[in-house]
Write a structure and sequence with these properties.
The chain has ten helices and four strands, in the order E-H-E-H-E-E-H-H-H-H-H-H-H-H. By secondary structure, it is mainly alpha-helical. The longest helix is centred in the middle third of the chain and has 23 residues. The termini are close together.
């Protein structure tokens, strides 16, 4: 999901400096709240939402959380369509400014707030390496991680749709190929995907990989370099924050079946999303 449905040197404009987090808001109730500074519409079941959430909290960017429960179909409501006509999360609202794509949201936050340079470097070549990964991952790692979760868990458990062994095997084979590219092309022998320091590329990648992990896939087994990279990324983010952000996806197997009306509404969109 580009946004998650479930997706020359840079100037850093002056913005609000790092500060304490705003209290988390009540769950999305299907109506817009009065503008209260920065608002993030998220569901941590979604991998792009997790990246945005971790980035904002790690960098102490104050925001109001607006939870959009994807498994209840809240993103498909007419009320949420007024926030984002694409009916996807994440969404950023900064006063009257609305932004809907996860990578665009991450770059906006990196530019507006005085975050450490390693996240999105000002050096043109270092910045280009982050851009290179972010451009690649949309139709490669993200797609395959998303399909692995849906084919292995969410379709059979949440929507009650059988997935053939052949389809699942093909999905996991494609994921394996994407992991080989991630390790061989991007990680190589570096500490992080684009160099010696953690960046947005690592954050986006690790939140993607936790999708198949949540489905029970052993994506780090037999890949010691990738496993060591995961540990470094978790340490850089902070283990407590990492676990907090991934608590929902790690319990995806426990999802309750969708009611028939919601299933009828969601299934065509899900199948189009993971094709």
């Amino acid at each position: 999901m580009g946004s998650g449905a479930w997706g020359a040197g840079r100037a850093r404009p002056c913005g609000l400096g790092p500060g304490p987090l705003s209290p988390v808001s009540p769950a999305w109730r299907g109506r817009s709240a009065p503008a209260m500074g920065l608002e993030l519409y998220l569901d941590l079941l979604s991998q792009p939402c997790r990246a945005v959430y971790i980035f904002a909290k790690k960098n102490r960017i104050p925001f109001e959380l607006r939870t959009v429960d994807l498994r209840k179909g809240q993103h498909l409501s007419d009320a949420f369509a007024q926030v984002n006509p694409l009916q996807k999360v994440p969404v950023l609202k900064d006063g009257d400014f609305v932004l809907t794509e996860s990578v665009a949201i991450l770059l906006y936050l990196a530019r507006k707030y005085k975050v450490p340079d390693h996240w999105y470097p000002q050096d043109p070549q270092a910045c280009a390496r982050v851009d290179e990964y972010l451009a690649w991952q949309h139709t490669a790692l993200r797609r395959n991680c998303l399909r692995a979760l849906w084919h292995k868990v969410m379709l059979p458990v949440f929507l009650g749709e059988l997935v053939s062994p052949e389809t699942l095997a093909a999905t996991l084979a494609e994921l394996d190929m994407a992991l080989q590219v991630l390790e061989g092309k991007f990680l190589q022998d570096k500490a992080f995907l684009t160099g010696p320091h953690v960046s947005l590329a690592d954050l986006v990648a690790i939140t993607e990989l936790m999708h198949p992990v949540g489905a029970g896939c052993q994506v780090f087994k037999g890949r010691p370099k990738l496993a060591a990279w995961r540990q470094r990324v978790e340490a850089a983010v902070g283990e407590a924050l990492f676990q907090e952000a991934h608590e929902v996806i790690l319990k995806a197997k426990d999802s309750q079946p969708a009611d028939p009306t919601l299933k009828q509404k969601m299934l065509p969109k899900v199948l189009a999303m993971i094709q």
